[in-house]
Every structure is written in C-alpha cells, then in structure tokens.
Amino acid sequence: MKVLLVDDEEKITNVLASYFEKNGDITYIANTGESAIQLIDQIPLDMIILDLMLPDMDGESICQYVKLNYDVPVIMLTAKISIESKVTGFELGADDYVVKPFHPKEVIVRAERLLPESHKKQVITSGNLELHKNERQVVWKHQIVQLTQHEFNILLLLAESPKKVFSRDDIIQKLFGYDTEIHLRVIDQHIKNIRKKINRDYIQTVFGLGYKMNEKVKSE
Fold first, then answer.
1. What values do phi and psi take at 99, rounded to 5?
2. CB of 28 within 8 A of CB of 3?
C-alpha cells in the first residue's frame, strides 16, 4: 500500500517508514501540514498516518480535508488525548487513534486492518464496472473492455478518489507530470473515448471544475 506518514518529528516518520518499507509498502513523508496536503493531492494514497499536532495546522483539519475529498483511511497519532477530542476526531472521519509512545508494528497492524478489501484485492468496483489494478484490466458487465494506457490511467485516477473533482490540469499533472505540454482538450477526448466504451454515466462532468466518478451509479 501507499502510505503517507505525517509528523513534525523526523525520527518518528523515519522509523515508521523503515518498518512500512520492510513490510513491502511504499512510503511518503511530510513534516508539515502544508506539505502533507500537497502530497495528498498529488498521490493516490491507500493510508495516512497523521500526527494530531503539527507546526502549521492541526491534524484534525487535515483529516477533515481528506475525508471531504478522498476515500483514504486516517490513523491519528497523539501523545495524549481526552475522550472529547477523540470523539471530535471520529466525527471528522478519523478511523483510528494510536497513542505515543507506540511500537511501529502496532501501527502497521492497525493500518492493514483498515485497508479496504478493494485495495487488498487490487480491484475497484462501481456498479457493474471493475478495475483490476494489477492486470490493468477493465471489466464492464462481465466483459473485458479495451482501454488505452492513458484511458485506463485516467479512469483509475478518478475511481481511486471518487469523491474528488479533478480538473483537466489535475489529471495532466498527476499522470503526465508538471513539465508536459499536453493540451487540456486531450483530456476531454480521453474522457469521451472512455464514455464510449463503458456507460457514459460513470464519469460525471462538474461544470466549471472538471470530472469525477458518479457515486450514484450502482448498476445499469
């Protein structure tokens, strides 16, 4: 899984990163809230380990941002916490709490227990649509659909964060990099091609903003 470790103490993030990487996971580190938000917006994450207290913003605000825009579990790290603060955190969407000091193995176990089945199986489903990440295969109504590499990447990007609206600039930057000179209309054409190959209702156009997965689509 892709794990973002957010804590202003580099010793903590480095130790956690070492244990997660030995576990076969990919880690990203942020020591400020601002850098954490940037990584959250740039990388399709599977898990976020988030310190409650950061130098530039509180962890609860970051947790709230994550839950409004992404389907990613969040484990909060804290030195001490009252029941009132814990209830507030859960109301904002925190999935679990770990109290410092802790052993990194405890964090890994808690993270793996929170990992959605779709990520464990590397399959994302939405109605009659299935995206098999390892095989890079799309199945719609039990039939394999042939998408180009770019079409698959765009559909996967949207499907992994179904609550988030991606602008055409977002899609270009995430899939092709900041230095690319791809025209914005190329993304529109890719979306059009995807819609032709599966039910067009799966990808929703948000006027003036961009594209997102239509969470209301359950079946056809």
1. -95, 130
2. yes
